[in-house]
Design a protein that fits this description.
The protein is of the alpha+beta class. The protein has two domains: 104 residues, Rieske Iron-sulfur Protein (3-layer Sandwich); 253 residues, Naphthalene 1,2-dioxygenase Alpha Subunit, Chain A, domain 1, CATH 3.90.380. It contains nine helices and 19 strands. Strands 12, 13, 14, 15, 16, 17, 18 and 19 form an eight-stranded antiparallel beta sheet that branches. β16 and β17 form a beta hairpin. The longest helix has 19 residues. The termini are far apart.
């Protein structure tokens, strides 16, 4: 805070309960795990927004998010067992149903289940992700993204967990592409990656729109940016943009992915990025595409951050990544090393923002305005979602 009680950028770093940004995040549904990473019958500990929880999928298939600790004596419930749709604590066997009611206290002669409750959080599955509402108030209506509701192939990528603040990802801009992703561009023969890019930003009813162009040209030169001329940020933390599909074997297919990325802080020093892509393929083509995406990416996800750490330690370079690595994975590694390498907001030293840093300038302004209003008890902007898929606008801009 400055001397007048106004929020400053570094005040947005903290996300725990009661922090300004933490309160703001808790006003929206957030993805917490990929649906395929939560098999039935196996409770897991979950950390989100600087808080711990327990997540499990009942044997009937419904995902539940409940408190981290058992209300009896505080043992982590992720150590326990799933029985039907209920969760049993490993310490003394108390059992809780999906609504957080205590339904059994096996050791007690005079059970007092009615007086014990386990905090639970509303959940919802959508686009291959499990969402939860982690706020204290009644949840707002769940928001579908019209772009992900079109008929087509939906793939939820392996979740990217990066050991740095969520702003390191929020601040990522369009101008980085020819530099950060140069090695992938060279390896895959993607000339479009090398054009120098600029963008203009405008605030919209849902967040912000970026209009992108090749440096020095009024419009997109030679279709280099294609549908990537437009991209969107849906407040508070969803990017939606359009990229040529990077799936191995589909690089020359002419297909474009719509890519939605939810960036959710795990704590002040770590975030999760939930990437979901929509690709306009249907029927058997869609099945083959999804199957090939999962086969390659799940395997590469095992080792991608080991490679990133070797690069950060100077033991290898991005140019040394294997030629047959899928471009989704190499893009992820390239972004990882630049973003994680920036370290915490505090202690980074003075920034020298330039005219091309318009995206992060507007995003920081919107966040400071809204979070400032929240902490001052003033009215917040009621962000609305676009009523039709934004891909239509991107297609029109690209003339396809
Ligand atoms: S601590 Fe969970 S049943 Fe005792
Ligand atoms: Fe990138």
């Amino acid at each position: 805070m400055d001397g007048n009680g106004h929020l400053e950028f570094a005040d947005l770093e903290g996300v725990g309960p009661g922090t300004p940004a933490g309160l703001y995040f808790r006003r929206f549904w957030q993805p917490v795990i990929r649906a395929r990473d939560l098999p039935p019958g196996r409770p897991k500990p979950l950390e989100m927004l600087g808080e711990k929880f327990t997540i499990y999928r009942g044997e009937g298939g419904v995902a539940h998010v409940v408190a981290y600790r058992c209300p009896h004596r505080g043992t982590p419930l992720s150590l326990g067992w799933v029985e039907g749709d209920t969760l049993r604590c490993r310490y003394h066997g108390w059992r809780f149903d999906g609504d957080g009611r205590c339904v059994e206290q096996p050791n007690e002669d005079r059970p007092f289940c009615a007086r014990v409750t386990l905090r639970r959080y509303p959940t919802r599955e959508y686009a291959g992700l499990v969402f939860a509402y982690l706020g204290d108030d009644a949840p707002p209506p769940f928001r579908n993204l019209p772009d992900l509701d079109l008929p087509g192939a939906i793939v939820a990528d392996p979740v990217e967990i990066l050991p740095c603040n969520y702003w390191n990802k929020f601040d990522n801009d369009h101008g980085h592409i020819p530099w950060v992703h140069r090695a992938t561009g060279l390896r895959k023969g993607r000339k479009d990656i090398f054009v120098l890019r600029q963008e203009t930003m405008t605030e919209t009813p849902f967040g912000m729109q970026s209009t992108r162009f090749v440096k020095g040209a009024a419009g997109d030169v030679g279709g280099a940016l294609g549908m990537g001329q437009l991209s969107y940020f849906i407040m508070p933390n969803i990017r939606l943009f359009f990229v040529r599909t990077r799936a191995k074997g589909y690089e020359d297919s002419g297909l474009w992915d719509s890519k939605a990325v939810w960036v959710v802080p795990i704590n002040d020093h770590k975030f999760a990025a939930f990437d979901v892509t929509y690709t306009p393929l249907e029927g058997k083509d869609a099945e083959a595409f999804v199957e090939s995406r999962y086969r390659q990416q799940e395997a590469e996800a095992e080792t991608r951050w080991d490679l990133a750490h070797k690069i950060m330690a100077g033991e290898m370079t991005l140019e040394d990544l294997p030629d047959d690595m899928g471009a989704y994975t190499s893009f992820a590694i390239e972004d990882y090393v630049t973003q994680v390498g920036m370290g915490p907001l505090k202690g980074r030293g003075k920034e020298n923002l330039a005219a091309t840093d318009v995206k992060l300038a507007l995003l920081r302004r919107l966040w400071l305005r809204e979070v400032g209003a929240l902490t001052a008890g003033k009215a917040l902007k009621d962000w609305t979602l676009p009523s039709e898929p934004l891909v239509y606008r991107a297609k029109a801009a690209a003339g396809v």
